[in-house]
## 1
Amino acid sequence: MDFPPEAFNQWASGYDQETAQENGFPFAGYQNLLNAIIAQANAKPGEKVLDLGCGTGNLGALFLPYDCRVWGSDFAAEMLVIARNKYPNIIFAEHDLRQPLPQGFPQQYDVIVSAYVFHHFPIHEKINIISGLLDRHLKPNGRLLIGDLVFVDPAAREQTASRYVDQWDEEEYWTLSEDLPLLAEAGIVVRVEPVSFCASLLHFSR
């Protein structure tokens, strides 16, 4: 991961305002992506939901009207300060999602979600994390839904990089032509739902 927690701590106070603007890259279609995750989650009362890399809690909070129990983790302490103030009914913990789940968190969930997080990890780490979630932490018939920055191929990625020079960071963005074969080799099935020119919902299963 290229960005240390300190970078996200500095971003925390302006994060909600920046995502709400949805201007260009990377947050075009931000709210539509969160809504797509909720729609595919098909949440039911009493279900356990885990939001990984929860930031200020916006995604996990969308499950509260469905009477779900929600846990959220993030490695940026300042993001969690804001999240706890906004959503006291969600249980939050400071946590790097490459590590075992936080102490006191349930080990299995009906729904595991994440938004705008996994593009910080190279594909081998993506595969390791997703495999662990599917095999150890997702209940039978559970749903693993990741909304993130996704490109069809390197050409689409480079086109966006050229168009949004000032906003672009060199990250490990999902590139389907390269990543889907590697995911398949690892026994991971992926369904892709595009939401904007740069964001898609990825539904993972075995």
## 2
Amino acid sequence: MVTSTHETLHRFFRDHPETIDRTFHAVGMTNFPKTARVQLLPNDVTEIEPLERRVDTAMLVESVDGQVFILVFESQGKADEAKRLSWPYYVEYLHSRHGCPVVLVVVCQNPSTAAWAREPIVHEAAFWLTSATYPLVLGPENVPSLKDIPESELLLGVLSAVIHGDGTDASDLARLAKNLRRLDPQTRVDLATYVLLGLGSFPIAQSWMKMMNVDYETLRTSPIIREWLDAHDQELTAEAEAQGKAQGLAEGRAEGLAEGRVQGLAEGMVEGMAKAKAESILHILDKRSVELSGLELQKIYTSTDLDQLDRWLDAALGVTSADELFGRRPRASDTP
């Protein structure tokens, strides 16, 4: 299953290529050329059929001063030594196929992963250096935090919020939300969804969901989620056709799976937030010695109504009984 954070970190540049040069300038690469035209390249870099290799995002860039080069964007959540074999392959394959320089860009949320990714990938014998690949890494240590990004740079602000993840300051996130609310409805929802999906399971994602009023229906119908998952379901269609099934059946399978994945991702995010809220409620009630029956515990823990959970969370700070929490009148036997 494709994770929302992984997809956000590399597809942001695919969907907003106008931010490419501004992003590299923001991390201090003032010599990065201003882009004039960007073309999305196929992400399949397979040469031998049984060995499938796919980059996250590859883009052919033409700069205003005539430079032509390829940017390969790879999203990396944790250290993975297998990538130190595949990344140089991507670079060499694309260079030989298109005949222009290739720059490998690795995007990370975790500082330790970014430090790992930044290490040169060296191909050498004891007596000779054959080649070396130097990833260009975007991570929390070099992408400016929200407080250092001008309010006019909304797209860069969105990227910063995602890359800094749980380290994003809530007040800075609130400022970004305020600026996004000034945009037209569709752009506002799209960018809010980018941030939400990029923050993934971080607790601050719940705050963002409230700030931007992103609900389950927004996620379920999000064209961003559908576009991301459609690409993966096209692979399933091709696989089914290769096995000799009718094209209509194969496409139907992919279409149905895409719908299920969209709904599953939306439901999963809401359920994850609901579970975190429920655990907070139960923790507070336990600390305040408010006893709950098994059915009452189940009622809280299985609820996916985020608004109701918020009301219970607020109430948990002051109630002294389950009856108060659920708004019930005390039973006659409990009244002195």
